[in-house]
TrEMBL record, chain B:
Leader peptide range in chain numbering: none
Organism per entry: Streptomyces agglomeratus
Keywords in alphabetical order: ATP-binding, Ligase, Nucleotide-binding, Protein biosynthesis, Transferase
Catalytic reactions on record: L-glutamyl-tRNA(Gln) + L-glutamine + ATP + H2O = L-glutaminyl-tRNA(Gln) + L-glutamate + ADP + phosphate + H(+); L-aspartyl-tRNA(Asn) + L-glutamine + ATP + H2O = L-asparaginyl-tRNA(Asn) + L-glutamate + ADP + phosphate + 2 H(+)
Protein name as annotated: Aspartyl/glutamyl-tRNA(Asn/Gln) amidotransferase subunit C
GO terms, biological process: glutaminyl-tRNAGln biosynthesis via transamidation; regulation of translational fidelity; translation
SUPFAM superfamilies: Glu-tRNAGln amidotransferase C subunit (SSF141000)
Record-stated family: Belongs to the GatC family.
E.C. no: 6.3.5.-
InterPro entries, A to Z: Asp/Glu-ADT_sf_sub_c, GatC
Gene: gatC
Chain positions covered by the region annotation Disordered: 70-98
């Protein structure tokens, strides 16, 4: 294998201007396939979810899934697209074993949605508008298992085994217009776009859009042109990039690779490329067929789709608040900085915090628990926040107990620890572990007397006006009460005993 | 009518994964030419006011509810397969692309 020559990222950008096109495939969360009633449930036995239609047997006839069309329209509307008054499906003809019909039912020059945009926000808050060319309906292919080669790779395989359970699952392909003017931020824009699209798809409720499960996949088209020129360079198409981080890395790698080829006088081959997660590189795939080689023609077995305007408007009225707008609204309501909001997003804590506030907690404590104790715990266990054995209602209850003075922070952490360990609800944990703030003045008074007597020198300093030294005595009392005292109250009591007032 | 060239037939054969001999390319070039010529006569009759038609019936929006229907059993699905392994369709080595 030859080593791919790369130019440094800075040198590449000094000489060239990147132009990107992103194609994202989203598997819809419908119960059945796009053109037949076979189940789309994941994890079924091989070839147990097929029928004559999705196997392409002679004489079978497809009928389109109404929810598939509805989802496509919702996605189109959320991307500010126009919705076709009338459009058809088309056959995309090519031969490959993962497609039993020998054509993919897709849409060609009449996509259901076209001419839209999605505003994406970069990490520093800058908003970049990505124009949408089209969103169209199509179907997924089957899954191949390559046998005999090294680690399931196609190269060196003696034969392949096909499972058609996935063949025919509804896909929406969303294609951007050429993304120009992003400059050195192009890889960041690519990542932010896919992230925003994923949030949008989830908010619409049309798919879980789990990239790790292949429910959302991105192809990154990239070309370079010398600064100051208009004409696009030859592009490469990096297929099936399956995480947000990989989208950014693939774009960055291709910028550096193209620049190395072009600046040494070479030319880019129009081809598909494969992305490698391990080192972030891409390698050559096949030379791309031209569109005419797919011999598209209108699908005769499916009648045209002509969404009534009243239906389109009905669907428009159901659209959720756009994720970017919602995030900015929450950020303001919670009173956090862009940077803090970014860490909340990265931690996947937004929904948990929202639910905790809805359960009665204030924003600051909801954020504090989910981003602190709970994030650390999830991290240690290698699970997501939702997978932790604690609900937003539990967290809200803990913060209510703190607000009422029944728990201090240290005890609250123990309560959370107990809930996570399956010891019951916060109230049950408080009960079982006997975790209550000691606020009984008599008991505290004794502990305070003791602390003063045992630290006479410090007590003198405080009497002499060095109020800041009170921390040491508070510490002694907290130690004596095993953390179960209310620190603010202890401080007041000590100052009162010593006849000093604060400030 | 412009003639279909030997190269065009060879290209189509590659797309269709057909292996054609030299004399077959010439043979099919002639045949395809005849077919396309015959079909082209339709556009002589169809004037500007006759739009291209993909569907003969004026139907739109035929859709089904998103409800699961029984599938074939794996045995039924695989019953027409020339070869199978691990309850999957077995196909020869996939070469030349991936
Ligand atoms: Zn089916």
């Amino acid at each position: 294998m030859t080593v791919t020559e790369l130019l440094s990222y800075e040198a590449a950008l000094a000489e060239y201007d990147p132009v990107m096109g992103l194609e994202v495939h989203v598997e819809l969360g419908t119960r059945t396939k796009m053109f037949c009633g076979c189940s789309t449930e994941l994890g079924a036995e091989p070839n147990s979810q097929t029928c004559p239609t999705c196997l392409g047997l002679p004489g079978s006839l497809p009928v389109v899934n109404a929810i598939g069309v509805e989802s496509a329209i919702k996605i189109g509307l959320a991307l500010h697209c126009e919705i076709a008054e009338w459009c058809r499906f088309a056959r995309k003809n090519y031969f490959y074993p993962d497609m039993p019909k020998n054509f993919q039912t897709s849409q060609y020059d009449e996509p259901i949605a076209f001419n839209g945009y999605l505003d994406v926000q970069l990490e520093d808050g800058e908003v970049f508008r990505v124009e949408i060319e089209r969103a169209h309906m199509e179907e997924d292919t089957g899954k191949s298992l390559h046998v005999g080669g090294a680690t399931g790779r196609i190269h060196g395989a003696s034969h392949s085994l096909l499972d058609y359970n996935r063949a025919g699952i509804p896909l929406i392909e969303i294609v951007t217009k050429p993304i120009e003017g992003a400059g050195e931020r192009a890889p960041e824009v690519a990542k932010a776009y896919v992230a925003e699209l994923r949030e949008l798809i989830r908010a619409l409720g049309v798919s879980d859009a789990r990239m790790d499960k292949g429910q959302m996949r991105c192809d990154v088209n990239l070309s370079l042109r010398p600064h100051g020129t208009e004409k696009f360079g030859t592009r490469s198409e990096t297929k099936n990039v399956n995480s947000l981080r990989s989208v950014e890395r693939a774009a960055r790698f291709e910028i550096q690779r193209h620049a190395a080829v072009l600046s040494s006088g070479g030319s880019i081959v129009q081809e598909t490329r494969h992305f490698h997660e391990d080192d972030g590189s891409t390698t050559s795939g096949r030379i791309k067929d031209n569109a005419e080689d797919y011999r598209y023609f209108p699908e005769p077995d499916l009648v045209p789709v002509a969404p009534a305007r009243a239906w389109v408007e009905e669907l428009r009225a159901t659209l959720p608040e756009p994720p970017r707008v919602r995030r900015n609204r929450l950020r303001e309501e919670w009173g956090v900085s862009e940077l803090d909001m970014q860490s909340i997003l990265n931690a996947g804590a937004v929904e948990a915090i929202v639910a905790t506030i809805e359960a009665g907690a204030d924003a600051a404590s909801a954020r504090k628990w989910w981003m602190g104790e709970l994030a650390r715990n999830a991290n240690e266990q290698g699970v997501s926040l939702e997978e932790l054995a604690i609900t937003p209602a539990d967290v809200a209850r803990v913060s209510a107990l703190v607000a009422a003075g029944d728990l201090n922070d240290k005890l609250a952490r123990q309560v959370i620890e107990g809930v996570l360990a399956g010891e019951g609800t916060p109230d049950e944990v408080v009960e079982k572990r006997g975790l209550k703030v000691v606020s009984d003045d008599g008991a505290l008074g004794a502990a305070v007397e003791e602390a003063i007597a045992g630290n006479a020198a410090i007590a003198d300093k405080i009497r002499g006006g060095k109020v800041a030294a009170v921390g040491a005595l508070v510490g002694a009392v907290m130690k004596a009460t095993r953390g179960q005292a209310d620190a603010a109250k202890v401080k007041d009591l000590i100052l009162e005993k010593l006849g000093v007032s604060e400030g | 009518m412009p003639g279909i060239t030997r190269e065009e037939v060879a290209h189509l054969a590659r797309l269709a994964r057909l292996e054609l001999k030299g004399e077959e390319l010439d043979h099919f070039a002639g045949q395809l030419d005849d077919i396309i010529g015959a079909v082209a006569r339709v556009s002589e009759v169809a004037d500007q006011d006759v739009p291209p038609t993909s569907h003969p019936l004026p139907l739109t929006n035929v859709m089904r509810a998103d409800e699961v229907r029984p599938s074939l059993t794996p045995e039924q699905a695989l019953s027409g397969a020339p070869a199978q392994e691990q309850q999957r369709f077995k196909v020869p080595q996939i070469l030349g692309e991936d």
